[in-house]
Every structure is written in structure tokens, then in C-alpha cells.
Write the C-alpha cells for this entry.
Amino acid sequence: MGNKRSKKANRLSKQLKEIEHLISPVAVPVTEEESDFHSEKESYTFFLDPVIATSPQVEDTEIIRYAQEGYGGWTIVSDLEPELRLDLMPVGYQHPVGNQPEQLLHFFAITDIHITDGEFPAHGIYSKCGGGIVSVYSEMMHYTTHVLDGAIHSVNAIHHQNPLDFGLSMGDNTNNAMYNELRWSIDIFDGKEINLDFGINANPRIGPRKDFYDEFMAVGLNQQIPWYQIIGNHDHIWPDKPQKAVSEDPDRRFLSRVEWMKEFFNTETHPIGHGFTDEHLETGFACYSFEPKEGVSIKVIVLDNTQRDDEPNVQGYAHGSLDRSRFDWLVAELEAGQQAGQIMIIAAHIPIGVEYQEPLTRPFMSWSTISPVSEMELIEKLQSYPNLILWVAGHRHRNTITPIISPDPDQPERGFWVVETASLRDYPQNFRVFEILKNADRTISIITKNINPTVKQGSFASIARSYAVAAQQIFNGRTEHLPSGSYNGELRVSITSSMSEK
Ligand SMILES: [Fe+2]
């Protein structure tokens, strides 16, 4: 068994070595020129071109065959109108006549960037390739810095049109919980020169802009936009042992939870610490709350609901989980927000109350069976706070919108929305913007739109998109589109009459 496994690991290691040197980009099919800055098409999206029926199946590692066999193509679709979702509203709800909504808050949410050290010696591909899970290996992983830079371009362009009050980086900034990967992610937000100078393969082709590891100057997030960080499972847990020897690199090292938080103090964007304070560095507790806009009674509660580092391995470490101390802290925050008459939003890496239809990921990503607080207990508690309107999350690399309906039809305000945002790494490589609007009646509208990173034709970000599309086609992942409302949506939620007056 062991021999068989090591033979497979050797074969995969050889394959990967070939891939690492394969930097000549394949043809990147683009059906429409995309503008450098999203002046007019900020909310366009793109869908997979179907793979021709006669095309043979290719392996995820056969990159040279992607375009040859018809994989990796996409079509841009003009703006998708937000789909109105009234799932939380009482039967017979009537939209108010002459409604002129007032914008209370505007923010962006980026998640699951998975910045990757391409030579990391414990990549999943060395031990698990063929598992049919795109997050184990995708050629796109070499291009993550370019996609994040493109996303920051888009954020800045949106800010120019409709100022953003803040941003959320919702976890899994890194693929392998490493110092070098985290630094690259923060430095891209900060607009520094990015140089993936590691090991021996960092510069396969001499000369600037020849390969995806060459240095480039990141555009940097507009300094007016504060951004806040949430911890993801990939930011502090990597259970695999190295399967491959690579050249030494002092920056290729794991960070403890506290070391990880400390890096957010080494930044040139705001706020210093990006939500974490000296107290967090003393305790290792990664939860906090903030009030993003003066004069607007809204509070954002940032919750670490990843597994503890000392939890036993029950089918991996990607489950949602809460111990009693985090749960008690959350309840105290909700209680204080409710008493203070604040609208509340929870931001956590892992979603709750969502459907798991795919048999492959359910056992690994659903709520932990050994979590001291069960998912049911958590949801029931959340439903007791009428001022909670929204839970935003990343984690599953998926765009979904889920209503958590009030258990009492006479109190619809006890319901709230769970919105998942797709990964910047895997198809469809989106992030989201959220507008919180107050309507003329006792309701709030949450307008959420999926935004694409700015992708210039022929750029590394464009190649990355093609690879992400190909990976999705090869693995035959779910790609739900309208009318599910999983992309752009207007989500209506009730508030109490006292909050409405406030
Ligand atoms: Fe992720």
C-alpha cells in the first residue's frame, strides 16, 4: 500500500515538475475585449462556454491540451439585474409605493484568494491528485497574485463611482498558511512591489513580464477604504506533511495564529491591524466587532468560526466550529447591538444553514460533528435577534444566497440572509459588493453584486481565468446560474418598527 502510494506520489511529483516549467501560455479564448477599468461594466459576469461534445476528457494537469480540446473558454454576459428575493417577507408583502431607498452602507467582500507558494512541498497534488476536488490542484494557483491585483483594480474603480465605506477580506488569503503567502496578499492590498522570489523555479524565463512569478507593482487599495480581515481555515491549519523536497527558503514557514494576526500590523493601508488589536496578539482570540460608518447605526461582528488548532481530525479541518468562549462572546455582541438599536451583520469565513448537495465536499466542509456549539443551536440563537440581517461568508468557493426564515410568522424580522461569496481563485473568480438600503417601509434591501477582477486581454489574470474555467469544466463542478439568485440579488429583510423609526 505504502509502496503504491509513494509510486503515485513520485509520478505526480514528476508531472508537477513538468507543469512548473510549462509557462508558455496556451491560447486564451476571450470573446470580447474587456476594459482596463470597470467604468461601465462593473457587474458584468461570464459563463463557461460548453465543451464540445466530441472533446476528449483531459486530466487537470494536461494544461497544454486545455485550449486544444476546447476547455477554458468563457462568454461575457452583460449586467445581470439583481433578482428580487422576498423569501423572508410575509405572504402578501407589497413593495412600498414611491419608494426612494436611502443608502446606509456600501462595502466589498473578497475571499479565498489562496495566494500560493508554487514550490510548497506539501501541496495536495503530491498526495491526493485525482480526488476530483478543484482546490487540491488547479494550474490557476500560480497566478493568484495577479487575480488579487485585478480585483483591487475593480474595487478602486467601484469606489470612484459609489464610495465604499469599508472592505472585508474573508479568509483563506493563503493556500498553505505560510508567511510568504500572507505577506504577498497584504502587500498587494498595500500596493507594493510583488516578487514571488522563492526557491529555484521562481524565475523560469529571464526578463520582465515573461512569467507569472516575475515582479510587478501592485496597484494597491485606495487609501480611503479601510479593510478588515477574517481568519480562514487555510490561514492557520495545514495538516499535510511535506511530500517533496524543495530548495530552502526562510520565508516558507508556517505562522501560528498570533503570528498570522501580527502580520496585519505591518501594513500601509488602514486600519493598522485590519481589525486585530494588541489584545488579540496576547490572547490569540480572532474575533472583534466594529462600527463602519459614523452616524449609521450598523455594527459588523467578525467571527472566527474555523476549527481550533487542537481539535482532533474528523475528516479534515475545513468544518465550521464554535467553542463556548467564542459563542458566549458572539451572544454578548449580539445582545449589546440589539440593546443599542444597531443593525447587525456577521462576517465569518464559514457559512451556516447552507445546502450541501455535492457528495464530495459535504463530509469535509459541513459543520463539525464535534463542535461544542451545534449549527442548530447557533441558528436558533441568531434567530432571536431581530436586528441581525445578514451573515456573509466565503469558504466553499461558491456564490449562494440562503434565507434563514424566522420561526415565527408574526415576527418576520427574526429571519436573516446568508450570502456566500465565490473564491478569487476558482471559477467564477468573483468578489462581491453589498449595498445596505433603507426602504420607505419597515424593510432593508441588501443589494449584492458579483464583481470580476479587472482582466486585460492576454494578461496573467486572463490566463488564470482560462485555467479556472478549464478546471471547473474538467471537474464538472456545480455552476448554478439564474434564476437561483446566487449571483446578483436584492434581498429584502424586515426590521422592527422601533428600528425603522430610528
Ligand atoms: Fe478557500
In short: Residues 2-501 form a domain with the Purple Acid Phosphatase; chain A, domain 2 fold (CATH 3.60.21.10). DSSP finds twelve helices and 17 strands in the chain. Residues 2 and 182 are 34 Å apart (CA to CA).
